[in-house]
């Protein structure tokens, strides 16, 4: 995401201002602070492209899957699957999170490439320097050189 932000804005200062703002949006909509069911329709795409959400989900599944808890009361959680159900991650697999994160990273890298290609600097073509004043014999040798882009005719002069 940082590469994409850096390619999107023209200056370092703008990237430093925009980067944390976007990261904050992804943290808020990552699933820990706002329930996905309560998210306004216009913002429902944000959790799907949040690397933070998918990383949190993958780490939770990795930590709690096939885990057995010591419980003292009947209402205590007995295993990791119950803990995952409590945070709405029951039945999910790590494979889903890896695929989702790979797609998001591919999207960010592709966007970065396209932005860098579109915004690449354009340079003027360099031409050889003009000959110094008072060097007429050197000028006759330069007239014999075939210049790039010049037509092949005896009257064509160098572009300087």
Q: Specify the helix fraction band.
A: 40-55%
What is the H/E string? HHHHHH
Our measurement of the CA-to-CA distance between the termini, rounded to an integer number of angstroms, reads 47 Å
* Overall radius of gyration: 31 Å
Unreliable stretches, pLDDT < 50, 5 or more residues?
none
Overview of the structural elements:
The protein is mainly alpha-helical. The model has no long low-confidence stretch (mean pLDDT 82). It has one domain (2-118). The longest helix is centred in the middle third of the chain and has 25 residues, at 94-118. The protein is built from six helices and no strands. Helices cover 49% and strands 0% of the residues.
List the helices and strands and how they pair.
Layout (H helix, E strand, L loop, with lengths): L1 H7 L3 H17 L22 H14 L15 H7 L7 H25 L17 H8 L17
Nutshell version of this structure?
This protein is 49% helix and 0% strand. With 160 residues, it is an all-alpha fold. It is a multi-pass membrane protein.
Question: What characteristics describe this protein?
Answer:
single chain; 160 residues; mainly alpha; elongated; ABC2_TM; ABC-type transporter activity; transmembrane
